[in-house]
Amino acid sequence: MMTDTPVILNMKYEDKKMNTVQVKNTVIGEGRPKICVPIVGKTKTDILEEAKKITTLPVDVVEWRVDWFDDVFATEKVLETASFKGHSCSPYIPYFQRRR
Predict the structure, then answer these.
(1) Closest CA to 37 of 79, 89, 78
(2) Confidence class of residue 4 from pLDDT cuts 50, 70 and 90?
(3) Is 48 helix (H, G, I), strand (E, B) or coil?
(4) Which of these ranges, 30-34, 72-76, 85-89, 92-96, has the smallest mean pLDDT?
(5) pTM for this model (two decimals)
(6) pLDDT of residue 50
(7) 73-78 long-range CB contacts below 8 Å, 24 or more apart?
(8) Is residue 44 a contact partner of residue 79, using CB atoms and an 8 Å limit?
(9) Helix/strand/coil (H, E, C) string of the chain?
(10) pLDDT at 78 over 70
(11) Are 51 and 87 in contact (CB under 8 A)?
């Protein structure tokens, strides 16, 4: 039965349970909110330059948006770039979203 009376839920934030995800030593979904920064470069050079800049920032997790990479469908190039050789921007999460 529908009514026009608003329903007020008496639920505290602490009562809500979140799923957690652990990426290396970082647990997302517990403790303080985490800072996640995306890398959206289109070339390997762009990606490595962004990774270098990110290492100077106080971030918890880096998300590599692989779907922005020009060679996204060239598996060898993706794997080579994913190694981030010479850069310590970890932990990072590779992410691909199909564009529509």
Answers:
(1) 89
(2) low
(3) helix
(4) 85-89
(5) 0.66
(6) 92
(7) 77/44
(8) no
(9) CCCCCCCCCCCCHHHCCCCCEEECCEEECCCCCCCEEEECCCCHHHHHHHHHHHCCCCCCEEEEEHHHCCCCCCHHHHHHHHCCCCCCCCCEEEECCCCC
(10) yes
(11) yes
Q: Residue 68 carries which side chain, given as an amino acid letter?
A: W
Contact at 8 Å (CB) between 59 and 37?
Answer: yes
Cα 92 from Cα 45, distance rounded (Å): 18
Is it the case that residue 6 has pLDDT exceeding 60? no
93 beta partners: 63
* Gap between the Cα atoms of 75 and 36, Å rounded: 25
pLDDT of amino acid 87: 59
**Which residue, 34, 100, 95, is CA-closest to 67?**
95
